[in-house]
Amino acid sequence: MRWRHEAPLNGRHRSPRARREVHGSALSPATCRALAAGAAAVALLAAGCSVSVGGRLGELKRIAKTCPDGKQLAVLVSLDVRGELRGSSLAESRTRAIGRSATQTAVCGGRLRVVVFSASSVASVVVFDGELRPVGATENARLRRVDGMVRKTMGAIAAAMPVAVARVSSRGGDPVGQLEIAQEYAVELGDEFGVHVVIETSGLTRGLAVTGLDRATAVRLAGRVSVPDLSGIAVLTFAGLGRVGSGAPPSTMAVAGLRAYYERLCVTAKAGSCRATSDIDPIGA
Q1: Closest CA to 149 of 133, 128, 130
Q2: Does residue 213 lie in a domain region?
Q3: Model confidence pLDDT, tens digit, residues 117-136
Q4: CA distances in angstroms from 70 to 132, 251, 261, listed in the order given
């Protein structure tokens, strides 16, 4: 097994700074309204935003209808943290995306793992790995516990993230290498789980030049890449493609090429459902 599994960093202790980052109330009303749209409301509820109880319960019930039929849900979120993707320009979108994944997991009752990576899958570090299963005698009782559970989870992730990122090299990124991590995760959990994987990355790699990259070229290049069998993955999403954080972004043609490249990799790997998008927050898109 190539992956060096670092100990999860989601301990009980949280620094005062981490608590401020998650529970602060400095967001503007406009930002709060934006975050309150759909399931994203819970991602930063503790930041001072509020939603009506009745409306929120209805939103969570709608999410519950998307839970895997006859299986538990497991969500793996892999974040590319190469140097140019560590800036604040992507931080809010990434936080919102993780919050949505945590909400979906808690609503369905399952497992969430958050990983950071850069140039090597071997050095990937687990930020959070745990079960999100609210208890209650009825569906409504369980759903009313979801937001509190997600707030606690987001606090743990916020506290652990800086330490995890510091353990990972800032040089380059290997999103294709995360496919092996996804395969190992699915094998580890077994058939009783429906595994959803989100790999959040700009998509740029050392061997993939974006200059002149069109869809046809991208598909041809993807056909030369060896990928693991991901038939045990129900949904695989490559998110944030072309979003570089700092520096000049790729051209529109190149971004379309990146989407075609990663979609073809996913199809070749035989994942149940494939998506390649420029959205950082794919669940809410």
Answers
A1: 133
A2: yes
A3: 988 666 789 999 999 999 99
A4: 18, 43, 32
Tokens matching residue 43: 């991602």
How far from chain centre, in Å, is Cα 153?
A: 14
| CB distance 160 to 113 below 8 Å | no
Q: Could you say which DSSP state residue 248 is in?
A: P
Say what the alpha-carbon torsion angle 177, 183, 185, 188 is, to the nearest 10 degrees.
-140
Q: Token pair of 15, please? A: 């620094």
Q: How many domains does the chain have?
A: 1
Tell me, what's the pLDDT at 271? 98
Helices 53-64 and 91-108, interaxial angle, to 10°? 70
Q: Which residues, 6+ apart, have CB-to-CB distance to 34 below 8 Å? A: none
Residue 220 lies in domain = 16-276
Task: State the Cα–Cα distance between residues 271 and 186, nearest whole angstrom.
Answer: 11
Residue type, 160: A
Residue 115 in 3-state DSSP? strand
Q: What is the mean pLDDT of residues 231-245?
A: 92
CATH number at residue 159: 3.40.50
| Bridge partners for 91 per DSSP | none
Which ranges constitute the DSSP H helices of the chain? 16-23, 29-35, 53-64, 91-108, 139-143, 146-166, 178-189, 215-222, 252-269
54 CB-side CA count, 13 A: 0
- Torsion, Cα 260 262 268 274, to 10 degrees, reads -90
